[in-house]
Amino acid sequence: MVSAGADGRRPGCALVTGGSRGIGAATAATLAAEGWPVGIVCRDSAAEAGRVAEAIAGDGGEANVIVADIADPATPDRIFAELEDRWGSVAVLVNNAGITADGLAPRMTDERWSSVLSTNLSGAFRMTRRALGPMMRARWGRVVNVGSIVGRRANPGQANYAAAKAGLEAMARTVAAEVGRRGITVNTVAPGLIATRLTENGVGAGLAEAIPARRPGTPQEVAACIGFLASERASYVNGTTITVDGGLTA
Ligand code: NDP
What we know:
- This protein is of the alpha/beta class.
- The chain is 40% helix and 16% strand.
- Strands 3-2-1-4-5-6-7 form a seven-stranded parallel β-sheet, with helices on both faces.
- α2 (46-58) links the parallel β2 (38-42) and β3.
- α1 packs parallel to α2.
- The longest helix is centred in the middle third of the chain and has 29 residues, at 110-138.
- The chain is globular.
- The termini are far apart.
- NADPH dihydro-nicotinamide-adenine-dinucleotide phosphate binds next to α1 and β2.
């Protein structure tokens, strides 16, 4: 049993995929503020990720940027080796990296289907699989997936994205049941419309009217929920999904 520090936090670091901007960047900052050294993964936006890491360092935290494609099956071993070398272990994994490649189902190409499934779902599964061995040995760990309300509610044009996000929730439930007795929790946060680059080109436009909060959410509002699930305080929350959507699906 790895003993906790005075603040209840375990040794090791947190890892946030897609931490260069949006929800991932806010999550990296939130976890760093909780005292975790943070590994930030991105594929193309290393400069942006560097600025996130600099901001964390400026606030007295620690962060390390790793450039990797989450859809590549070789990625998890490389990322974990680097972080384990530097900080000993990965105690918190946030599977946040995600893309969209929209199209109505009758015309959805195999390429669009596969790119979304391999980044948003298979990539998250491989990262989770790699994380669990050391977490089981430490008898403590936190995995948080970033799903979407689209995993539960139709959004025409997003059959690939919806399937991936529903898959993340189902995966989290099953893995949670497998590893719950080892002090590991696996949960999903399902955001609604959040103001990030993913949605700046009109995705979800007009939706604000339908949101009881009458506005899109901020990345920080999602990160706050992820931070809770990653903490000791959420030790009895396992295998579930928390929706962060301003009441949209209430
Ligand atoms: P952004 O587009 O702002 O950020 C996406 C992040 O994922 C970037 O850091 C990007 O880095 C990274 N990324 C994408 N593909 C890969 C890859 N193959 N390998 C490594 N990193 C990758 O999106 P958001 O912050 O809006 O979204 C974050 C998560 O939240 C996603 O899973 C999204 O589906 C989910 N979500 C977002 C909602 C919203 O309204 N914004 C609503 C519901 C869910 P790079 O550019 O370098 O590849």
